[in-house]
Design brief:
This protein is an alpha/beta fold and 284 residues long. The protein has one domain: P-loop containing nucleotide triphosphate hydrolases (Rossmann fold). 29% of the residues lie in helices and 21% in strands. It is built from eight helices and ten strands. Helix 5 crosses helix 6 and helix 6 runs parallel beside helix 7. The longest helix is centred in the C-terminal third of the chain and has 16 residues. It is globular. The two termini are 27 Å apart. Bound molecules: adenosine-5'-diphosphate and magnesium ion. Adenosine-5'-diphosphate (ADP) binds next to strand 2 and helix 2.
């Protein structure tokens, strides 16, 4: 992924994004309106067909579908890594199609956090710098980048390992670093593509518990998965099949907005606490 610095830091897009960050806008974080994406070929591949999806601030949404159903294509549209061939995508009220490339790069760098199945960490760089680099394109000075990186590492339970290299970490710890990098810029939305896909069952559970914890703290998150068991646990579940959204439970009620416990991990409640949500005994 290559970002460029905005040539127009005082542009309309930047101002609107900052307004949104200040909580003034009241618009959806993400609005996918009749969006389609076809890939050229003989015949062309219609990967997404007239998809509608609106995500509000503070939601935790699971998008589930089998391999080839269009999940990654949808994530790329939601993350402004790609543009729709039909319809419209708006991030924090800004229409992706009308934005100059520089503004779009700035919007992406400051408003969207990405988490991938393969982590995509720089192996030669320390944990601290991997996370701090998440702020490089937002124009934050180095000292401040590192302080905010430490804060983000604290959030994911890795504050004690800032000088480790990714090669010295377990898969679960690497994904925690990637999550800290996604969060360090305080994005409006975090998009995760199969975040537990490369992890064993227990470690995957601890990453989901972390995602729940971030959601409880106010983050807006989208988790893409092929795993129906994971999707069933999400407060809102969207199903995608052959490029269509075929089911959407809609925004969760305020009293039903937590990640549901995993059947295999439920333990008897101890004095009202759900131990399945605890990351204190994290196996990663
Ligand atoms: N760059 C591309 N060029 C051509 N076809 C593509 C491209 N990317 C994805 N596709 C096709 O689009 C469909 C959806 O792919 P994708 O979004 O990756 O699905 P998923 O993430 O659900 O597995 C598939 O048929 C896939 O082969
Ligand atoms: Mg995919």
């Amino acid at each position: 992924m290559k970002y460029t610095l905005p040539s127009t830091p005082d542009s309309y897009a930047v101002a609107v994004a900052d307004d949104f960050a200040a909580g003034g806008a009241g618009v959806p974080v993400l609005d996918v309106d009749n969006a389609s994406r076809s890939y050229p070929g003989e015949p062309p591949v219609q990967a997404l067909r007239e998809v509608n999806l609106t995500i509000g601030q503070g939601e935790l949404v699971g998008i589930v579908g089998p391999s080839g159903s269009g999940k990654t294509t949808l994530l790329q549209l939601m993350g402004t890594l790609d543009r729709p061939t039909g319809g419209r995508v708006q991030i924090t009220g800004l229409d992706v199609a009308t934005m100059a490339d520089n503004d779009l790069s700035y919007l992406r760098a400051t408003r969207i956090g990405f988490i991938f199945q393969q982590f995509f960490l720089a192996e030669h760089a320390t944990v601290l710098d991997n996370v701090a680099d998440g702020l490089l394109y937002a124009g934050v000075p180095l000292k401040q980048r590192r302080q905010r990186a430490l804060d983000a590492l604290d959030l994911v339970g890795l504050a004690q390992r800032p000088h480790a290299r990714p090669t010295q970490l377990s898969g679960g710890e690497r994904q925690r670093v990637a999550i800290a990098r996604a969060l360090v810029g305080h994005p409006a939305i975090v998009l995760a593509d199969e975040p537990t896909g490369n992890l064993d069952q227990a470690t995957g559970q601890s990453i989901l518990a972390l995602i729940d914890q971030l959601h409880q703290a106010g983050s807006t998150l989208v988790v893409i998965t092929h795993d129906h068991i994971i999707a069933e646990r999400m407060p809102r579940k969207v199903e995608i099949l052959d490029g269509h959204i075929v089911a959407d439970t809609g925004p969760a009620a305020p009293d039903d907005c937590r990640l549901r416990p995993s059947a295999s991990f439920v333990q008897p409640p101890v004095s009202g606490h759900h131990s399945a949500f605890s990351i204190a005994d994290d196996p990663s």
